[in-house]
Amino acid sequence: MSVRNDELAALFEEFANLLEAQDVEYKPRAYRQAAENIRAYPESVADLARRGGTDAVMGVNRVGDAIASKVVEYVETGEIEELEELRAALPVDMAALTSVEGVGPKTVGTLYDELGVRTLDDLETAARAGEISEVRGFGEKTEENILANLDFARRSHERKLLGQARPLADDIQRHFAGVAAVERSSVAGSLRRWKPTIGDVDLLVASDEPEAVVDAFTDWEDADSVIEAGPIKASVRSKGIRVDLRVVAPEEYGAALQHFTGSRDHNITVRDRAIERGLKVNEYGVFDVSDVDDPDSGQRVGERLACETEADVYAALDLPLIPPEMREDRGEVEAAAEGRLPDLIEEGDVRGELHLHTTWSDGRYSVREMVEAAAERGYDYVNVSDHATGPGMVGGVGLSDDELEEQLAEVREVGDDADIEVFAGVEANVGEDGSVSVGDDLLAELDCVIASPHSALDGDGTDRLIRAAEHPEVNVIGHPTGRMLNQRSGLDLDVPRLAAAAAEANTALEINSSPNRLDLSGGAVKLAVERGATVVVNTDAHSPSNYDLVRYGVHTARRGWAAADDVLNTWETDDVRAFLGR
DNA sequence: GCCGTTTTCGGCCCGACTGTTTTCAGTCG
């Protein structure tokens, strides 16, 4: 049985909520943290369980022997006995009910005990009948809010894609640019760390007039409804996404930005380092509490060190500024302390696009239009890589070998006219056995061959992709797992093993920048780069405007600690040609 | 339940906001 990480994570989140409904202390937090780390783990945790048992699963941060053995139990039997007992004691659809804004585990427990509410439908029926406002501790306002939030909970139980949330954040940043009370503003939270999926949009503003900022925020034309609004913070819903605003004093902006960017685990490690130095870090600043009797006696206890900028905050802890994309508690604080932070790739380092489609397959623009658009962007080279026919290609999208020969002539012709280097390539399909769906003679004529899995996208794909990577004519493995965010998890990969083989074979691993994919993930990129593999940031463009998606790939590379040198398409044309063996 | 150059036992982040309450519980981030 193949079990996805997010499926495991959901189980332990349910575990946490059921325990919390019973007033159990501390355990819920432990289960939630374990769930979060399982969800974010770059490889299949179920695979870990199968290969190495509880010991291997305990390698996941904040997973100890108790939770690890529950993972093993679930992978082996499809059930966790303790969870079944908890469910029997509180037989409710916990995930659905707690997805209603303002309804948490305690509320679920109370409404089950008092009214027998088990599902969203039960909740709606009880609210419409006015029963909820009769329960002690509840009132009419709570009942109204539940009704108001129910539809939203029914419609959107998924995290939003980075590619949806980023443009929204850009919009509101433009709105704030016209508000006089806003001194500085930034996105924070997981969006600033460029996580592939986002729970909500976090915004931070520096201002001496917080209430004016909150007013401007709730008046924003794209704010569809106001969830809450106080003197220094507010939340609205916009286009189905929750947007949280926090306003802070300008002199505390750096500390607040550091605090609200997270991740929580990164901040815990940072705080630990502060404690070692007699310092205290919170959202208001870094404080020297070495001469203070009770450092917990207030928010701003002790002497405040500089914290107008994030760099000040890290400097106070003898650390260089750690880029937001790295703040996932994957060893970055230790690396920073030892001066080992990589010089991360930046958007401006990208010199070319090595994966694009034209009207020959499923693109919407001609070879010439795609090449000219790349030249206009200032790129030095592109690789025309239309789909080949083969496993996973439906509706006649992919090209036969004869058609590819025909296209090759056109690509050469466009290349002769172009100011930039035009590589002739293909996106071939990797069969279930690792074979490549284009004839070897034709592959040898091409400059840059991408091999991508498009079919049989479940189970372990490591051996299959290694075989493709070792094919002498293959230069890039495209979207290696084949995952589609919120839809399918794709292949399980032993990334270190694949990366070592790819490095040996001089084959690059793709970071596909499409917001639906972001494949490889940042965590996988880190493992790949550590094994010496070269990665390539491609947009898989089907139109010129798709070239803009490159930022998502670059920031994913940064989440994987990649420097420009690790990324093939930051190299100069001659070096890329040498890598391709042309 | 997890975790440890202060601990293998005894801690666990904490502040803002809301709605329900007369001083607080629940939710959220």
UniProtKB/TrEMBL annotation:
Its EC number is 2.7.7.7, 4.2.99.18. Gene3D superfamilies: 5' to 3' exonuclease, C-terminal subdomain (1.10.150.20), Beta Polymerase, domain 2 (3.30.460.10), DNA polymerase beta, N-terminal domain-like (1.10.150.110), DNA polymerase, thumb domain (3.30.210.10), Metal-dependent hydrolases (3.20.20.140). SMART domains: HhH1, POLIIIAc, POLXc. Residues 2-328 form the DNA-directed DNA polymerase X domain. GO terms for biological process: DNA repair. Keywords: DNA damage, DNA repair, DNA replication, DNA synthesis, DNA-directed DNA polymerase, Exonuclease, Hydrolase, Methylation, Nuclease, Nucleotidyltransferase, Sodium, Transferase, Ubl conjugation. One of its GO terms (molecular function) is exonuclease activity. It is found in: Cytoplasm. Its cofactor is Mg(2+). Residues 55-74, 95-114, 130-149 form the Helix-hairpin-helix DNA-binding motif class domain. It holds the Pfam family HHH_5. GO terms for cellular component: cytoplasm. It catalyses: a 5'-end 2'-deoxyribose-2'-deoxyribonucleotide-DNA = (2E,4S)-4-hydroxypenten-2-al-5-phosphate + a 5'-end 5'-phospho-2'-deoxyribonucleoside-DNA + H(+); 2'-deoxyribonucleotide-(2'-deoxyribose 5'-phosphate)-2'-deoxyribonucleotide-DNA = a 3'-end 2'-deoxyribonucleotide-(2,3-dehydro-2,3-deoxyribose 5'-phosphate)-DNA + a 5'-end 5'-phospho-2'-deoxyribonucleoside-DNA + H(+); DNA(n) + a 2'-deoxyribonucleoside 5'-triphosphate = DNA(n+1) + diphosphate. InterPro entries: DNA-dir_DNA_pol_X, DNA_pol_lamdba_lyase_dom_sf, DNA_Pol_thumb_sf, DNA_pol_X_beta-like, HHH_MUS81, Hlx-hairpin-Hlx_DNA-bd_motif, NT_sf, PHP_dom. Residues 352-432 form the Polymerase/histidinol phosphatase N-terminal domain. PANTHER family: PHOSPHATASE YCDX-RELATED. Repair polymerase that plays a key role in base-excision repair. During this process, the damaged base is excised by specific DNA glycosylases, the DNA backbone is nicked at the abasic site by an apurinic/apyrimidic (AP) endonuclease, and POLB removes 5'-deoxyribose-phosphate from the preincised AP site acting as a 5'-deoxyribose-phosphate lyase (5'-dRP lyase); through its DNA polymerase activity, it adds one nucleotide to the 3' end of the arising single-nucleotide gap. This is DNA polymerase beta.
